[in-house]
Write a structure and sequence with these properties.
The complex is a heterodimer of chains A (281) and B (300).
Chain A lengths: L1 H37 L4 H5 L13 H32 L6 H19 L2 H15 L6 H25 L3 H9 L4 H30 L2 H6 L17 H12 L2 H30 L1
Chain B lengths: L1 H43 L2 H6 L3 E2 L4 E2 L2 H32 L2 H16 L2 H17 L11 H25 L3 H9 L4 H12 L1 H17 L2 H7 L24 H8 L5 H31 L7
Antiparallel strand pairs in B: 1-2
The chains are: A mainly alpha (281), B mainly alpha (300).
Protein backbone atom coordinates (compact mmCIF):
# COMPACT_ATOMS: atom_id res chain seq x y z
CA UNK A 1 0.00 0.00 0.00
CA UNK A 2 2.71 2.40 1.09
CA UNK A 3 4.86 1.67 -1.95
CA UNK A 4 1.95 2.44 -4.23
CA UNK A 5 1.43 5.89 -2.81
CA UNK A 6 5.15 6.59 -2.90
CA UNK A 7 5.16 5.61 -6.56
CA UNK A 8 2.24 7.92 -7.19
CA UNK A 9 4.00 10.81 -5.48
CA UNK A 10 7.11 10.25 -7.51
CA UNK A 11 5.24 10.00 -10.78
CA UNK A 12 3.14 13.07 -10.12
CA UNK A 13 6.17 15.08 -9.06
CA UNK A 14 7.81 14.16 -12.34
CA UNK A 15 4.78 15.54 -14.22
CA UNK A 16 4.91 18.71 -12.17
CA UNK A 17 8.57 19.06 -13.02
CA UNK A 18 7.90 18.50 -16.74
CA UNK A 19 5.25 21.16 -16.77
CA UNK A 20 7.30 23.55 -14.64
CA UNK A 21 10.28 23.08 -16.93
CA UNK A 22 8.16 23.85 -19.99
CA UNK A 23 6.86 27.05 -18.43
CA UNK A 24 10.42 27.93 -17.40
CA UNK A 25 11.57 27.50 -21.01
CA UNK A 26 8.78 29.79 -22.19
CA UNK A 27 9.71 32.37 -19.57
CA UNK A 28 13.42 32.21 -20.37
CA UNK A 29 12.93 32.51 -24.13
CA UNK A 30 10.44 35.38 -23.90
CA UNK A 31 12.19 37.02 -20.94
CA UNK A 32 15.62 36.93 -22.56
CA UNK A 33 14.41 38.32 -25.87
CA UNK A 34 12.35 41.05 -24.18
CA UNK A 35 15.00 42.20 -21.73
CA UNK A 36 17.83 42.22 -24.25
CA UNK A 37 15.60 43.60 -26.97
CA UNK A 38 13.89 46.38 -25.08
CA UNK A 39 17.22 47.78 -23.98
CA UNK A 40 17.62 48.98 -27.55
CA UNK A 41 14.11 49.97 -28.45
CA UNK A 42 13.10 53.60 -28.61
CA UNK A 43 10.86 55.67 -30.84
CA UNK A 44 13.64 56.11 -33.39
CA UNK A 45 13.88 52.36 -33.77
CA UNK A 46 10.32 52.28 -35.08
CA UNK A 47 10.62 55.40 -37.20
CA UNK A 48 13.87 54.88 -39.08
CA UNK A 49 14.49 52.29 -41.76
CA UNK A 50 17.42 49.90 -41.77
CA UNK A 51 20.36 51.46 -43.58
CA UNK A 52 21.54 48.14 -44.91
CA UNK A 53 25.06 48.49 -43.57
CA UNK A 54 27.05 45.66 -42.12
CA UNK A 55 26.54 46.64 -38.49
CA UNK A 56 22.77 46.71 -38.91
CA UNK A 57 22.35 50.44 -38.33
CA UNK A 58 18.90 51.95 -38.43
CA UNK A 59 15.52 50.83 -37.18
CA UNK A 60 12.72 48.71 -38.53
CA UNK A 61 10.30 51.19 -40.14
CA UNK A 62 10.40 49.74 -43.64
CA UNK A 63 10.10 46.19 -42.31
CA UNK A 64 6.95 47.12 -40.38
CA UNK A 65 5.46 48.53 -43.57
CA UNK A 66 6.47 45.43 -45.55
CA UNK A 67 4.93 43.18 -42.89
CA UNK A 68 1.62 45.07 -42.90
CA UNK A 69 1.59 45.20 -46.68
CA UNK A 70 2.22 41.48 -46.97
CA UNK A 71 -0.31 40.50 -44.29
CA UNK A 72 -3.05 42.55 -45.94
CA UNK A 73 -2.27 41.28 -49.45
CA UNK A 74 -2.22 37.67 -48.28
CA UNK A 75 -5.50 38.02 -46.42
CA UNK A 76 -7.13 39.64 -49.45
CA UNK A 77 -6.35 36.46 -51.40
CA UNK A 78 -6.85 33.91 -48.64
CA UNK A 79 -9.99 35.15 -46.85
CA UNK A 80 -12.56 34.83 -49.67
CA UNK A 81 -11.15 31.47 -50.74
CA UNK A 82 -10.87 30.09 -47.22
CA UNK A 83 -14.20 31.37 -45.92
CA UNK A 84 -15.94 30.32 -49.16
CA UNK A 85 -14.48 26.83 -48.89
CA UNK A 86 -15.51 26.60 -45.23
CA UNK A 87 -19.07 27.69 -46.10
CA UNK A 88 -19.29 25.12 -48.85
CA UNK A 89 -17.98 22.27 -46.71
CA UNK A 90 -20.41 22.97 -43.86
CA UNK A 91 -23.53 24.36 -45.55
CA UNK A 92 -23.61 22.71 -48.96
CA UNK A 93 -21.46 19.57 -48.99
CA UNK A 94 -23.96 17.31 -47.22
CA UNK A 95 -26.86 18.13 -49.51
CA UNK A 96 -24.98 17.16 -52.67
CA UNK A 97 -26.56 14.30 -54.56
CA UNK A 98 -24.34 14.02 -57.63
CA UNK A 99 -21.77 11.25 -57.22
CA UNK A 100 -19.15 13.19 -59.13
CA UNK A 101 -19.49 16.31 -56.99
CA UNK A 102 -19.35 14.15 -53.88
CA UNK A 103 -16.00 12.80 -55.05
CA UNK A 104 -14.86 16.39 -55.62
CA UNK A 105 -15.87 17.31 -52.07
CA UNK A 106 -13.96 14.36 -50.66
CA UNK A 107 -10.89 15.41 -52.64
CA UNK A 108 -11.32 18.99 -51.39
CA UNK A 109 -11.30 17.71 -47.79
CA UNK A 110 -8.19 15.68 -48.53
CA UNK A 111 -6.61 18.79 -50.06
CA UNK A 112 -7.20 20.84 -46.92
CA UNK A 113 -5.73 18.14 -44.67
CA UNK A 114 -2.68 17.71 -46.88
CA UNK A 115 -2.08 21.42 -47.22
CA UNK A 116 -2.18 21.81 -43.44
CA UNK A 117 0.74 19.39 -43.11
CA UNK A 118 2.97 20.67 -45.91
CA UNK A 119 6.17 22.22 -44.52
CA UNK A 120 6.48 25.91 -45.32
CA UNK A 121 9.70 25.61 -47.31
CA UNK A 122 7.75 23.55 -49.87
CA UNK A 123 5.35 26.47 -50.29
CA UNK A 124 8.41 28.65 -50.71
CA UNK A 125 9.87 26.33 -53.33
CA UNK A 126 6.54 26.19 -55.16
CA UNK A 127 6.11 29.97 -54.95
CA UNK A 128 9.62 30.45 -56.25
CA UNK A 129 9.04 28.12 -59.21
CA UNK A 130 5.58 29.38 -60.14
CA UNK A 131 5.22 33.00 -59.08
CA UNK A 132 8.78 34.30 -58.96
CA UNK A 133 10.11 32.50 -62.03
CA UNK A 134 7.41 31.07 -64.32
CA UNK A 135 4.93 33.94 -64.00
CA UNK A 136 7.69 36.57 -63.82
CA UNK A 137 6.35 38.26 -60.69
CA UNK A 138 9.94 38.32 -59.44
CA UNK A 139 10.84 38.62 -55.79
CA UNK A 140 7.87 40.68 -54.73
CA UNK A 141 5.09 41.23 -52.24
CA UNK A 142 2.75 39.63 -54.81
CA UNK A 143 4.77 36.40 -55.13
CA UNK A 144 5.20 36.18 -51.37
CA UNK A 145 1.52 36.83 -50.70
CA UNK A 146 0.43 34.15 -53.16
CA UNK A 147 2.79 31.62 -51.58
CA UNK A 148 1.65 32.76 -48.12
CA UNK A 149 -1.96 32.19 -49.17
CA UNK A 150 -1.23 28.47 -49.50
CA UNK A 151 0.02 28.49 -45.92
CA UNK A 152 -3.01 30.16 -44.32
CA UNK A 153 -5.90 28.79 -46.40
CA UNK A 154 -6.23 25.62 -44.31
CA UNK A 155 -6.22 27.70 -41.11
CA UNK A 156 -9.07 29.90 -42.36
CA UNK A 157 -11.06 26.94 -43.71
CA UNK A 158 -10.84 25.05 -40.43
CA UNK A 159 -11.82 27.95 -38.19
CA UNK A 160 -14.66 28.88 -40.55
CA UNK A 161 -15.93 25.31 -40.44
CA UNK A 162 -15.82 25.27 -36.64
CA UNK A 163 -17.59 28.61 -36.43
CA UNK A 164 -20.36 27.58 -38.82
CA UNK A 165 -20.91 24.25 -37.11
CA UNK A 166 -21.50 26.12 -33.86
CA UNK A 167 -24.48 28.00 -35.33
CA UNK A 168 -27.67 26.18 -34.21
CA UNK A 169 -29.58 24.30 -36.93
CA UNK A 170 -32.81 26.01 -35.83
CA UNK A 171 -31.53 29.37 -37.15
CA UNK A 172 -31.26 27.92 -40.63
CA UNK A 173 -34.58 26.14 -40.40
CA UNK A 174 -36.38 29.28 -39.26
CA UNK A 175 -34.91 31.31 -42.10
CA UNK A 176 -35.75 28.71 -44.74
CA UNK A 177 -39.26 28.32 -43.30
CA UNK A 178 -40.10 31.97 -43.86
CA UNK A 179 -39.14 31.63 -47.51
CA UNK A 180 -35.51 32.73 -47.63
CA UNK A 181 -33.30 31.05 -50.21
CA UNK A 182 -30.25 28.97 -49.31
CA UNK A 183 -27.73 31.71 -49.98
CA UNK A 184 -29.93 34.34 -48.33
CA UNK A 185 -30.00 32.14 -45.23
CA UNK A 186 -26.23 31.70 -45.26
CA UNK A 187 -25.52 35.39 -45.91
CA UNK A 188 -28.07 37.01 -43.61
CA UNK A 189 -28.47 34.47 -40.81
CA UNK A 190 -25.61 31.99 -40.54
CA UNK A 191 -22.61 34.21 -41.36
CA UNK A 192 -23.53 37.05 -38.98
CA UNK A 193 -23.73 34.54 -36.10
CA UNK A 194 -20.40 33.00 -37.05
CA UNK A 195 -18.50 36.17 -37.82
CA UNK A 196 -16.55 36.27 -34.56
CA UNK A 197 -15.35 32.72 -34.95
CA UNK A 198 -14.32 33.37 -38.51
CA UNK A 199 -12.46 36.49 -37.49
CA UNK A 200 -10.33 34.52 -35.02
CA UNK A 201 -9.23 32.44 -37.99
CA UNK A 202 -8.24 35.54 -39.87
CA UNK A 203 -6.30 36.93 -36.92
CA UNK A 204 -4.61 33.56 -36.53
CA UNK A 205 -3.60 33.70 -40.19
CA UNK A 206 -2.22 37.20 -39.78
CA UNK A 207 -0.09 35.80 -36.95
CA UNK A 208 1.13 33.01 -39.19
CA UNK A 209 2.24 35.46 -41.86
CA UNK A 210 3.97 37.68 -39.30
CA UNK A 211 5.87 34.66 -37.91
CA UNK A 212 6.68 32.92 -41.17
CA UNK A 213 10.21 33.27 -42.46
CA UNK A 214 11.13 30.35 -44.71
CA UNK A 215 8.53 31.05 -47.43
CA UNK A 216 9.39 34.73 -47.63
CA UNK A 217 13.11 34.07 -47.52
CA UNK A 218 12.82 32.48 -50.96
CA UNK A 219 10.03 34.61 -52.47
CA UNK A 220 10.23 38.12 -51.05
CA UNK A 221 13.79 39.00 -51.97
CA UNK A 222 14.83 40.71 -48.75
CA UNK A 223 15.33 44.30 -49.85
CA UNK A 224 15.49 46.57 -46.80
CA UNK A 225 13.85 49.45 -48.69
CA UNK A 226 10.22 50.37 -48.15
CA UNK A 227 7.99 48.49 -50.61
CA UNK A 228 6.08 50.86 -52.86
CA UNK A 229 3.97 48.48 -54.93
CA UNK A 230 2.88 44.86 -55.15
CA UNK A 231 5.88 44.23 -57.36
CA UNK A 232 8.44 45.57 -54.86
CA UNK A 233 10.77 43.31 -53.00
CA UNK A 234 10.90 43.72 -49.24
CA UNK A 235 11.58 42.09 -45.92
CA UNK A 236 9.17 41.41 -43.10
CA UNK A 237 10.20 41.88 -39.49
CA UNK A 238 10.78 38.12 -39.11
CA UNK A 239 12.96 38.12 -42.19
CA UNK A 240 14.81 41.16 -40.87
CA UNK A 241 15.66 39.23 -37.70
CA UNK A 242 17.11 36.48 -39.86
CA UNK A 243 19.21 38.81 -42.01
CA UNK A 244 20.47 40.73 -38.98
CA UNK A 245 21.50 37.53 -37.20
CA UNK A 246 22.91 35.59 -40.14
CA UNK A 247 24.34 38.20 -42.46
CA UNK A 248 25.34 41.20 -40.42
CA UNK A 249 25.67 39.43 -37.04
CA UNK A 250 24.00 42.45 -35.43
CA UNK A 251 22.55 40.39 -32.62
CA UNK A 252 21.44 43.35 -30.52
CA UNK A 253 19.32 44.75 -33.33
CA UNK A 254 18.06 41.26 -34.13
CA UNK A 255 16.97 40.80 -30.51
CA UNK A 256 15.23 44.17 -30.51
CA UNK A 257 13.29 43.27 -33.66
CA UNK A 258 12.52 39.84 -32.21
CA UNK A 259 11.16 41.51 -29.06
CA UNK A 260 8.76 43.57 -31.18
CA UNK A 261 7.68 40.37 -32.95
CA UNK A 262 7.09 38.52 -29.70
CA UNK A 263 5.00 41.37 -28.30
CA UNK A 264 2.95 41.41 -31.49
CA UNK A 265 2.36 37.64 -31.30
CA UNK A 266 1.36 37.86 -27.63
CA UNK A 267 -1.13 40.61 -28.51
CA UNK A 268 -2.61 38.56 -31.38
CA UNK A 269 -2.90 35.55 -29.06
CA UNK A 270 -4.70 37.70 -26.49
CA UNK A 271 -7.15 38.88 -29.14
CA UNK A 272 -7.85 35.30 -30.19
CA UNK A 273 -8.27 34.08 -26.61
CA UNK A 274 -10.58 36.93 -25.69
CA UNK A 275 -12.74 36.44 -28.76
CA UNK A 276 -13.01 32.70 -28.27
CA UNK A 277 -13.83 33.06 -24.58
CA UNK A 278 -16.44 35.59 -25.59
CA UNK A 279 -17.82 32.99 -27.99
CA UNK A 280 -18.06 30.11 -25.60
CA UNK A 281 -19.98 32.21 -23.10
CA UNK B 1 -38.41 36.28 -59.12
CA UNK B 2 -38.50 32.84 -57.51
CA UNK B 3 -36.66 31.38 -60.48
CA UNK B 4 -33.96 34.01 -60.47
CA UNK B 5 -33.40 33.42 -56.80
CA UNK B 6 -32.95 29.74 -57.43
CA UNK B 7 -30.52 30.41 -60.27
CA UNK B 8 -28.56 32.73 -58.02
CA UNK B 9 -28.47 30.06 -55.33
CA UNK B 10 -27.08 27.53 -57.77
CA UNK B 11 -24.48 29.99 -59.03
CA UNK B 12 -23.36 30.70 -55.45
CA UNK B 13 -23.20 27.00 -54.70
CA UNK B 14 -20.83 26.33 -57.56
CA UNK B 15 -18.61 29.31 -56.86
CA UNK B 16 -18.30 28.12 -53.27
CA UNK B 17 -17.50 24.63 -54.55
CA UNK B 18 -14.73 26.19 -56.57
CA UNK B 19 -13.33 27.87 -53.42
CA UNK B 20 -13.46 24.49 -51.68
CA UNK B 21 -11.55 22.90 -54.53
CA UNK B 22 -8.83 25.55 -54.40
CA UNK B 23 -6.90 23.65 -51.71
CA UNK B 24 -6.94 20.50 -53.78
CA UNK B 25 -5.81 22.47 -56.82
CA UNK B 26 -2.97 24.02 -54.83
CA UNK B 27 -1.83 20.58 -53.65
CA UNK B 28 -1.96 19.32 -57.23
CA UNK B 29 -0.08 22.33 -58.54
CA UNK B 30 2.58 22.00 -55.86
CA UNK B 31 2.98 18.36 -56.82
CA UNK B 32 3.11 19.03 -60.54
CA UNK B 33 5.40 22.06 -60.37
CA UNK B 34 7.94 20.69 -57.93
CA UNK B 35 8.02 17.39 -59.72
CA UNK B 36 8.36 18.98 -63.14
CA UNK B 37 11.29 21.07 -61.97
CA UNK B 38 12.84 18.04 -60.30
CA UNK B 39 12.53 15.85 -63.38
CA UNK B 40 15.92 16.75 -64.95
CA UNK B 41 17.63 15.83 -61.68
CA UNK B 42 15.86 12.49 -61.49
CA UNK B 43 16.70 11.86 -65.12
CA UNK B 44 20.35 12.94 -65.20
CA UNK B 45 21.44 12.10 -61.68
CA UNK B 46 19.03 9.29 -60.91
CA UNK B 47 17.08 8.71 -57.73
CA UNK B 48 19.49 6.11 -56.44
CA UNK B 49 22.58 8.26 -56.81
CA UNK B 50 20.74 11.24 -55.34
CA UNK B 51 19.82 9.25 -52.26
CA UNK B 52 23.05 7.34 -51.69
CA UNK B 53 25.82 9.68 -52.87
CA UNK B 54 27.39 11.31 -49.79
CA UNK B 55 28.91 14.29 -51.62
CA UNK B 56 26.99 17.45 -52.47
CA UNK B 57 29.22 19.71 -54.52
CA UNK B 58 27.11 21.59 -57.07
CA UNK B 59 30.21 23.24 -58.58
CA UNK B 60 31.51 19.81 -59.58
CA UNK B 61 28.18 18.36 -60.58
CA UNK B 62 28.01 16.12 -57.53
CA UNK B 63 24.54 15.97 -56.12
CA UNK B 64 24.03 13.52 -53.28
CA UNK B 65 21.64 14.35 -50.49
CA UNK B 66 22.58 11.51 -48.16
CA UNK B 67 24.30 13.97 -45.80
CA UNK B 68 21.14 16.08 -45.60
CA UNK B 69 18.99 13.01 -44.99
CA UNK B 70 21.34 12.04 -42.17
CA UNK B 71 21.22 15.60 -40.81
CA UNK B 72 17.43 15.81 -40.87
CA UNK B 73 17.11 12.32 -39.43
CA UNK B 74 19.54 12.86 -36.56
CA UNK B 75 18.23 16.27 -35.56
CA UNK B 76 14.67 14.93 -35.60
CA UNK B 77 15.75 11.98 -33.49
CA UNK B 78 17.50 14.30 -31.05
CA UNK B 79 14.50 16.59 -30.73
CA UNK B 80 12.16 13.64 -30.15
CA UNK B 81 14.44 12.22 -27.43
CA UNK B 82 14.57 15.59 -25.69
CA UNK B 83 11.06 16.84 -26.38
CA UNK B 84 8.77 13.83 -26.10
CA UNK B 85 9.23 13.02 -22.39
CA UNK B 86 8.70 16.67 -21.52
CA UNK B 87 5.66 16.98 -23.76
CA UNK B 88 4.05 13.79 -22.46
CA UNK B 89 4.70 14.87 -18.88
CA UNK B 90 2.98 18.16 -19.64
CA UNK B 91 0.06 16.46 -21.35
CA UNK B 92 -0.55 14.03 -18.49
CA UNK B 93 -0.18 16.87 -16.02
CA UNK B 94 -2.67 19.04 -17.88
CA UNK B 95 -5.27 16.36 -18.45
CA UNK B 96 -5.09 14.32 -15.25
CA UNK B 97 -3.40 16.22 -12.46
CA UNK B 98 -3.85 19.96 -12.89
CA UNK B 99 -6.87 21.67 -11.36
CA UNK B 100 -9.04 23.54 -13.85
CA UNK B 101 -7.60 26.87 -12.70
CA UNK B 102 -4.01 25.74 -13.18
CA UNK B 103 -4.95 24.30 -16.55
CA UNK B 104 -6.57 27.57 -17.56
CA UNK B 105 -3.22 29.30 -17.01
CA UNK B 106 -0.84 26.65 -18.38
CA UNK B 107 -2.74 25.79 -21.57
CA UNK B 108 -2.57 29.30 -23.12
CA UNK B 109 1.12 29.47 -22.20
CA UNK B 110 1.81 26.30 -24.19
CA UNK B 111 -0.22 27.70 -27.07
CA UNK B 112 1.90 30.84 -26.89
CA UNK B 113 5.02 28.67 -27.11
CA UNK B 114 3.59 27.36 -30.40
CA UNK B 115 2.96 30.88 -31.67
CA UNK B 116 6.46 32.29 -31.22
CA UNK B 117 8.06 32.69 -34.66
CA UNK B 118 10.67 30.09 -35.54
CA UNK B 119 13.16 32.83 -36.37
CA UNK B 120 12.96 33.93 -32.72
CA UNK B 121 13.77 30.40 -31.57
CA UNK B 122 16.62 30.35 -34.04
CA UNK B 123 17.97 33.63 -32.72
CA UNK B 124 17.60 32.43 -29.13
CA UNK B 125 19.51 29.31 -30.13
CA UNK B 126 22.30 31.37 -31.67
CA UNK B 127 22.79 33.75 -28.77
CA UNK B 128 22.01 31.49 -25.79
CA UNK B 129 22.13 27.77 -26.59
CA UNK B 130 25.08 27.71 -29.02
CA UNK B 131 27.47 29.48 -26.59
CA UNK B 132 26.48 27.00 -23.86
CA UNK B 133 27.03 23.99 -26.12
CA UNK B 134 30.37 25.47 -27.18
CA UNK B 135 31.59 24.95 -23.59
CA UNK B 136 31.67 21.19 -24.10
CA UNK B 137 35.32 20.43 -24.70
CA UNK B 138 35.52 18.29 -27.78
CA UNK B 139 37.88 19.09 -30.64
CA UNK B 140 36.19 20.95 -33.45
CA UNK B 141 33.10 21.82 -31.42
CA UNK B 142 31.83 25.27 -32.42
CA UNK B 143 28.50 25.07 -30.67
CA UNK B 144 26.69 25.12 -33.98
CA UNK B 145 25.49 21.62 -34.75
CA UNK B 146 23.07 18.81 -34.11
CA UNK B 147 22.88 19.22 -30.33
CA UNK B 148 21.96 22.91 -30.40
CA UNK B 149 19.54 22.26 -33.25
CA UNK B 150 17.94 19.34 -31.39
CA UNK B 151 17.42 21.49 -28.30
CA UNK B 152 15.82 24.30 -30.30
CA UNK B 153 13.69 21.85 -32.25
CA UNK B 154 12.59 20.04 -29.07
CA UNK B 155 11.20 23.32 -27.75
CA UNK B 156 9.43 23.93 -31.04
CA UNK B 157 7.68 20.55 -31.28
CA UNK B 158 6.76 20.45 -27.60
CA UNK B 159 3.48 22.41 -27.95
CA UNK B 160 2.22 20.25 -30.85
CA UNK B 161 2.87 16.99 -29.04
CA UNK B 162 1.49 18.35 -25.77
CA UNK B 163 -1.81 19.61 -27.14
CA UNK B 164 -2.55 16.61 -29.34
CA UNK B 165 -1.76 14.10 -26.55
CA UNK B 166 -3.68 16.20 -24.03
CA UNK B 167 -6.65 15.98 -26.38
CA UNK B 168 -6.19 12.21 -26.76
CA UNK B 169 -5.97 11.63 -23.01
CA UNK B 170 -9.01 13.76 -22.34
CA UNK B 171 -11.11 11.85 -24.84
CA UNK B 172 -10.70 8.64 -22.82
CA UNK B 173 -14.18 8.02 -21.34
CA UNK B 174 -14.60 8.92 -17.70
CA UNK B 175 -16.03 5.48 -16.92
CA UNK B 176 -12.61 3.89 -17.52
CA UNK B 177 -11.11 5.98 -14.76
CA UNK B 178 -14.05 5.43 -12.43
CA UNK B 179 -13.98 1.69 -13.00
CA UNK B 180 -10.28 1.51 -12.22
CA UNK B 181 -10.53 3.70 -9.13
CA UNK B 182 -13.51 1.70 -7.89
CA UNK B 183 -11.42 -1.47 -8.04
CA UNK B 184 -9.02 0.13 -5.60
CA UNK B 185 -6.30 1.32 -7.95
CA UNK B 186 -4.49 4.51 -7.02
CA UNK B 187 -4.78 7.52 -9.26
CA UNK B 188 -1.34 6.93 -10.78
CA UNK B 189 -2.11 3.26 -11.40
CA UNK B 190 -5.29 4.37 -13.14
CA UNK B 191 -3.41 6.89 -15.26
CA UNK B 192 -0.52 4.63 -16.17
CA UNK B 193 -2.35 1.34 -16.67
CA UNK B 194 -5.79 2.38 -17.90
CA UNK B 195 -5.89 5.91 -19.24
CA UNK B 196 -2.58 6.06 -21.13
CA UNK B 197 -2.95 2.64 -22.76
CA UNK B 198 -6.42 3.66 -23.97
CA UNK B 199 -5.08 6.91 -25.38
CA UNK B 200 -2.07 5.18 -26.89
CA UNK B 201 -2.85 5.62 -30.56
CA UNK B 202 -3.66 9.30 -30.03
CA UNK B 203 -0.40 9.82 -28.17
CA UNK B 204 1.62 8.01 -30.82
CA UNK B 205 0.02 10.11 -33.53
CA UNK B 206 0.88 13.23 -31.51
CA UNK B 207 4.53 12.17 -31.53
CA UNK B 208 4.37 11.41 -35.25
CA UNK B 209 2.85 14.83 -35.93
CA UNK B 210 5.67 16.39 -33.91
CA UNK B 211 8.10 14.41 -36.04
CA UNK B 212 6.52 15.88 -39.16
CA UNK B 213 6.89 19.39 -37.80
CA UNK B 214 10.51 18.69 -36.92
CA UNK B 215 11.32 17.43 -40.41
CA UNK B 216 9.72 20.52 -41.96
CA UNK B 217 11.34 23.21 -39.83
CA UNK B 218 13.66 25.39 -41.85
CA UNK B 219 14.75 28.77 -40.60
CA UNK B 220 15.56 27.88 -36.99
CA UNK B 221 17.60 24.94 -38.27
CA UNK B 222 19.65 27.02 -40.70
CA UNK B 223 20.47 29.37 -37.85
CA UNK B 224 21.91 26.82 -35.40
CA UNK B 225 22.89 23.63 -37.21
CA UNK B 226 25.98 25.01 -38.98
CA UNK B 227 24.84 24.02 -42.49
CA UNK B 228 27.96 22.06 -43.41
CA UNK B 229 27.32 19.33 -45.93
CA UNK B 230 28.96 16.47 -44.08
CA UNK B 231 27.70 13.17 -42.82
CA UNK B 232 27.78 13.69 -39.06
CA UNK B 233 30.39 11.60 -37.28
CA UNK B 234 31.61 11.30 -33.72
CA UNK B 235 34.62 13.49 -32.98
CA UNK B 236 36.07 11.27 -30.27
CA UNK B 237 35.69 7.74 -28.91
CA UNK B 238 32.42 8.75 -27.28
CA UNK B 239 29.71 8.03 -29.88
CA UNK B 240 27.47 10.74 -28.41
CA UNK B 241 29.83 13.40 -29.74
CA UNK B 242 28.15 12.80 -33.09
CA UNK B 243 25.59 15.33 -31.87
CA UNK B 244 28.29 18.00 -31.68
CA UNK B 245 28.92 17.64 -35.39
CA UNK B 246 27.72 20.28 -37.81
CA UNK B 247 25.11 19.18 -40.31
CA UNK B 248 22.57 20.40 -42.81
CA UNK B 249 18.89 19.53 -43.07
CA UNK B 250 16.93 18.81 -46.26
CA UNK B 251 14.90 21.97 -45.66
CA UNK B 252 18.01 24.04 -45.06
CA UNK B 253 19.60 22.74 -48.25
CA UNK B 254 16.67 24.11 -50.25
CA UNK B 255 16.43 27.46 -48.48
CA UNK B 256 20.14 28.25 -48.49
CA UNK B 257 20.79 27.54 -52.16
CA UNK B 258 17.58 27.97 -54.15
CA UNK B 259 17.86 31.68 -54.83
CA UNK B 260 21.12 31.45 -56.76
CA UNK B 261 20.94 27.94 -58.16
CA UNK B 262 20.48 27.33 -61.88
CA UNK B 263 20.22 24.37 -64.21
CA UNK B 264 20.80 20.92 -62.80
CA UNK B 265 21.69 22.37 -59.42
CA UNK B 266 18.28 24.02 -59.15
CA UNK B 267 16.62 20.85 -60.33
CA UNK B 268 18.47 18.85 -57.66
CA UNK B 269 17.09 21.26 -55.04
CA UNK B 270 13.58 20.66 -56.33
CA UNK B 271 14.29 16.94 -56.11
CA UNK B 272 15.25 17.51 -52.47
CA UNK B 273 11.85 19.18 -52.09
CA UNK B 274 10.02 16.26 -53.68
CA UNK B 275 11.75 13.81 -51.36
CA UNK B 276 10.99 15.98 -48.33
CA UNK B 277 7.37 16.36 -49.43
CA UNK B 278 6.92 12.60 -49.83
CA UNK B 279 8.63 11.93 -46.51
CA UNK B 280 6.30 14.32 -44.69
CA UNK B 281 3.23 13.02 -46.53
CA UNK B 282 4.08 9.53 -45.28
CA UNK B 283 4.63 10.76 -41.73
CA UNK B 284 1.43 12.82 -41.66
CA UNK B 285 -0.79 10.19 -43.19
CA UNK B 286 0.44 7.60 -40.73
CA UNK B 287 -0.44 10.06 -37.95
CA UNK B 288 -3.88 10.48 -39.48
CA UNK B 289 -4.31 6.73 -39.81
CA UNK B 290 -3.38 6.20 -36.16
CA UNK B 291 -5.76 8.92 -35.14
CA UNK B 292 -8.70 7.52 -37.07
CA UNK B 293 -7.98 4.07 -35.66
CA UNK B 294 -7.95 5.50 -32.16
CA UNK B 295 -11.41 6.92 -32.81
CA UNK B 296 -10.52 10.54 -32.14
CA UNK B 297 -10.27 13.61 -34.30
CA UNK B 298 -7.39 15.99 -34.27
CA UNK B 299 -8.28 19.28 -32.66
CA UNK B 300 -7.53 22.43 -34.65
Amino acid sequence: MKLRTVKQHMAFSAMWVACGLTLAILLVVIGYVMIKGFALINLDFFLTSPRGGLSGEGGIASTIIATVYLVITTLVFATPLGVGAGIFLVEYADSISSRFVKKLVASARFGVETLAGVPSIIFGLFGYALFVTALHFGFSILSAALAGTCLVIPVIIRTTEEALKAVPMSYREASLAIGAGKWETVWKVVLPSAVRGISTGIVLSAGRIVSETAIFYVTLGGSYRTPTSLMSSGRTMALHVYYLAMETRAFDKALATAAVLVVLIILLNLVINTVSRWLSR
Amino acid sequence: MQRRKRQFDTAMKYSLLFAALASMLIVLMIGVFTFREALPAFRHIGLEKLLTEPVWRPGQEQYGILAMIAGSGLVTLGSVILGVPLALGCAIFLSEIARPRVRAVVKPCIELLAGIPSVVYGLFGMVVIVPIVRQIEVPGNTGFGLLSASIVLAIMILPTITSVSDHAIRSVPKEYREGSLAMGATKWETVSRVVIPSARSGIISAVVLGLGRALGETIAMIMVIGNSVIIPAAASSNPLTIFLSRARTLTGNIAVEINYATGLHQSALFATGVILFLLIMIVNSSARYLMSRGGMRKSG
